C-alpha cells in the first residue's frame, strides 16, 4: 500500500471541517493537525525530499507530526525553490500546542478557540499546497 499525502489531506480536511461544524472539537482538532501535516509533506516531496519505497518521507526530521513538522518544513523549504512556500506559512507555528497524543485526551481539553487556531493553521498549510499546484510542482 502506498502513502498518498494528497488524498489523505483531502479526507482529513473534509472530516475535520464536518466535525468542527458539528461542534465535535476533539476529533476536529486532531484532524486539522493531520491534514496540515499531509499538506506540508506532499509539498516537501514535490520539492524533492527523498521518500522510501512506500512513498513516506525517508528523512527522520521529516517524519514528524505537525507540531514539529511546521518548523522542519520552514527549514527544509529555505532553498531557492521552496522559500516562497516557507514564507507563506509565516513565522509563528500555530500547532506548537498540538500533539498527536491528544487524540487520547478528554473532550474538556479542547476549546473552540484552540480548534479555530488549528483550523487556521491547517488552512495556511492547504494554501501552501495549493500554491505548489499553481506553480506546477504538484500535479
Would you kindly provide a written description of the structure presented here, covering whatever features stand out?
The chain has 139 residues and is mainly α. It has one domain (5-134). The radius of gyration is 14 Å and the shape is globular. It contains 5 helices and no strands. Helix 1 (5-21) packs antiparallel against helix 5 and helix 2 (25-46) runs parallel beside helix 5 (112-134).
Question: Nearest-angstrom radius of gyration?
Answer: 14 Å
Order of helices and strands: HHHHH
The overall average pLDDT, rounded, is: 96
Helix vs. strand class: mainly alpha
Number of helical runs?
Answer: 5
Q: How many domains? A: 1
Assess the beta-strand content as a share of residues.
under 5%
Low-confidence stretches: none
Question: What's the total count of β strands?
Answer: 0
Largest sheet: none
What characteristic shape results from the CA principal axes? globular
Give the distance, in angstroms, between the N- and C-terminal Cα atoms. Answer: 20 Å
Helix content: 55-70%
